[in-house]
Every structure is written in C-alpha cells, then in structure tokens.
Amino acid sequence: MFKFINNIKKKAFTLSELLIALGVIGILTAILMPIVFSLAPDQNVLMAKRAFYTTETVISDLLNDPSCYPKILSRAGLDDGLGYNKCKKWGGEENKDSLTSENSADKLVTLFADRLDIKGSITTERNTKSFKTKDGMKWTFSHFNFANNVPESYVLLTVDVNGDKDPNCGQASTSGKCKESNRTKGFDKFTMRIFARGRIQIIDCWAVMAAKVDKKLVGDDDVTNCNKTDSGTSKEECSEAPTSPEDFCCNDEKWKNSEICNSCVTEPTSPDDYCCTAASNSSWINSQACDPCTYTTPSGPNDACCQSGHKWHGTQACDICSSPYSLECCLTKTSSLEYGDKCCEHTQIANQVPACRNQSITIKSKFYVSSEYSKDNSTWGKTKITSESTISSSVPFNIEVKYIRGCPSGVGCGSYGAGMTCTINSGNKSCSSSEDFVTGNFPYKFAITKPDKAKGGFTGFKPIYTIPANYKNNYSVKFEFPGTLEMY
Predict the structure, then answer these.
(1) β-bridge mates for residue 138, sequence order
(2) Contacts for 12 with CB less than 8 Å, ≥ 6 apart
(3) 42, 158, 344, 471: which sits with the fewest CB atoms below 10 Å from its CB?
(4) Helix (H), strand (E) at residue 33
C-alpha cells in the first residue's frame, strides 16, 4: 500500500511544468480575448433597434386609439391637438384644461410618454420637449411642424440610446453631428421624422442599418451602405439656410453659427435678451451687454452700479463730488465747512456742523476827528474823536464795539489799549461814542483786533463778524485800524 502511494507522488507535476502550463494559458487568453469581445453585441445598435420599434408601436397604438385620435375629416392624424373626454391624459379626467385649447405638440408628447416607462417628468427647453426612460435612453421631440390636415407635416424625435454617456452625437444634422468628421462608428444618437399619418423615417444612416432585420448585432463594424434607406442625407436636409432658430438644420456645422440659428451672434441690447440667460450658453453672459447697469444711470456714488466691473465704475456719474454741493459730497467736508458754505443749506449738515448755525452781523463804523482850531493851523488844540456803529437788523443780545487806540511812546497820551467803547444794546441797531483829549502834533492809531481779515479804511469799512450759535447775552467786537487818523 505505501509503495503504491509513493509511486503516485513521483508522478506529480514539477514547478517548471506548472510555469510552462500557465504561460501557455496566458498566450491563449491574449489571442482569444479580442475574438470574444468582437462577438459581444453592439449595445448601441440593440438600443437603436429597440427605440425604433418602440416608436413604431406607440405611434401605431395612438393613431388606432379612437378615444384620443378619432378619425375626423379636418385632421390627418397626429396633427389633431384637440382634447376629448374619453382620452384620460388629454381632455379626460387628468387633463380637463386641454378641452378648451388645441396643441398637437403637447398632446403627442404627453400621450407618447404615457405609454413608456419614463423616469422623472417631461422637461421643456425653448421649443424642445424631453424625457428619459428607465432603460437609460433620452427622447427629445423638436421641430413641431404639424399643420391641420396636412399629411406631410411632421415632428422630429431624436433618441440618445445611452443617455448622457459619450459621444452624444449622430450622423445627421438633426441629431447633432459628431465633432470628429471622419467618425464611421460608435454613434449613440439618431433622429426619426414622424409624419402626421404615422409614417416614420429614420434620418441617421447608422440607425437605418440598425433597424434592418439582417443587421449584424455583434462587433463594431462601420456603417457601410445606406442607399435606398429613405434616410435622407445632410446635403438633402440642410442645403438651404434654415428659416428659424428652431429649424433642425441649425445643428449643422454650416448653419449653427449663422445669425438665423444663433441670435447671440449679435450683441444683446437688453439684460432680458435670451442671449443673457444661462440657457443660451452664449459668450455674452456676464458681459456688460447683459449687465442691467449698462442700461440705467446710477442714482449716486453709492449705487450698486458704481461698483467695480460695471460700466459706470470710475466715471463722473459715480464721483461722490461730481455735484460739489450734494449731500453726499458735503458729508465728506464737514470738518472744513465754514459759515455761509452752500453745504450748510442741507438740514443734516446744518445739524451736524456748528459753524453752519452761526449768525452773521455786518457792523458799519464811521470815525470823525476834529479840533477846536481851524484845520490850517499848524497846532491843534483840543481834539475830539467820534465813532458811530450800526447794524442792519437788531439782535437779542448786547454788542460791545471797542475802538482801541495805540499811541507812540513818549507822546503822553496814556497807556496802549485806551480808546472808546460803543454798545449796541439788545433790540437796537446803532450806538455812538466820543473821546476828547489835548495833545500836540502826534499820529494816533486805532487797531482792528478781531477779525483781522476784515481790515479796511477807518472811515467806512464794513467788517463782518460771525456770532456763534451758542452766543451769550453780551458779546464784544474789537477792531484795529491801520494808519494815522485823518484830521479835519
């Protein structure tokens, strides 16, 4: 017994033999895998065949449903957009509104989708209506061309057999041609023209071949022959310019950037222009042509349209002091405003700036110098100086007008600062004062000590002095007069 077992062990594979066997298996796998893959069914072809026969079945069912498409002389078939009580989805219990209006496009899409297992709901974008089915295909109706009782009127139905997966293109302009002009296989979109009486015409050659009964279902061979397929060619479909943006030929490379197909070729003239919406996907989006601020004038520098990126940014319309006495500009100058500035006419400024609330008083002063002797005498005797001060309107407080006399040293006219005081009492408009003294030949001087900017001749100047808004009952004004007194 043990001898038999030992003989079996001696007949096992060696490590070298195992490695050789694995190598042979690997080579066979590399050779056979491409063959196996080439025998796999072309999924897009299968789905295109399925989509075409599904469409044929649904259209046939609809046209043979007297509840929704009764035979009436004034309609060819699918051009009938009327609602009927017995048609549950169009005029019946689920859509009573359609009894009062006729819409052949909405009716067809609604009833067509109702007979499929759709995922989600029908979406509308411009003049197309789309929905997805649970098998992953996307169905898009467009170019609704139905006309009452016109058998040759039609609608286009484009099917993307693998949904949002690449390459998302077909052969015909109606489907959206692939970017690679030399592509001969691997298409996933095709378009059918559905006529009013139910005839269906496949436009893309690859889908025509897919729908044929004898189409090979395995491999990814090129589309080779579409002669006599009733498919139509790009040249036949789009040799002439489209007549509207909704025309399917606007998908053709020749026309898609034309002014007819692409209204966004020209610059928008309003922010509400379609070319300014996200749906247009135009190059004008976020440009000044689509900026609402481009079509209005800012109300002031704080207007949102004055911000960076807008047309008005940095212009005079957004300059806070383009109008120097506007409230906005005046608010920037409150620290430097003086009484009488036009900015003080704004109530907000007047309440904020004390200088704006000051009152202005004009004091007119006259001075007379006389001698007890005649003017031609070389020596003057007793000299008298008389002053008179007046204001245009009375004020509710006393104003002391002080005329300060300054004397040269050694003359003996008393200390510097001597002079006269004239008080305009509250409610009055004037006052007068005089000074008598005896002296020889000397030059007397008077000085304006306040305000120093109002200097003038002593016989008739009009100094203006500003009374603070928080004035007291008594207020003193001092004047300084330059030069020698005129004697007469």
Answers:
(1) 132, 160
(2) none
(3) 471
(4) helix 15-38
DSSP secondary structure code for residue 486 in this structure:
P
387 pLDDT tier (thresholds 50, 70, 90): confident
Place of tokens 């007069």: 481
Residue 46's nearest CA partner among 245, 284, 206 is 206
Token pair, residue 193, equals: 């023209």
DSSP string, 102-161: --HHHHHHHHHHHTS-EEEEEEEETTEEEEEETTS-EEEEE-----TT-TT-EEEEEEET
Residue 467, CB half-sphere, CA atoms under 13 Å: how many?
19
Q: Is the pLDDT of residue 160 over 80?
A: yes
CA 325: distance to chain centroid? Answer: 31
Do residues 442 and 411 touch, judged by C-beta distance below 8 A? yes
Q: What percent of the chain has pLDDT over 70?
A: 69
| Coil, strand or helix at 412 | coil
Q: Lowest-confidence range among 86-100, 130-144, 251-265, 302-316? A: 251-265
Rounded-to-integer distance, Cα 384 and Cα 401, Å: 18
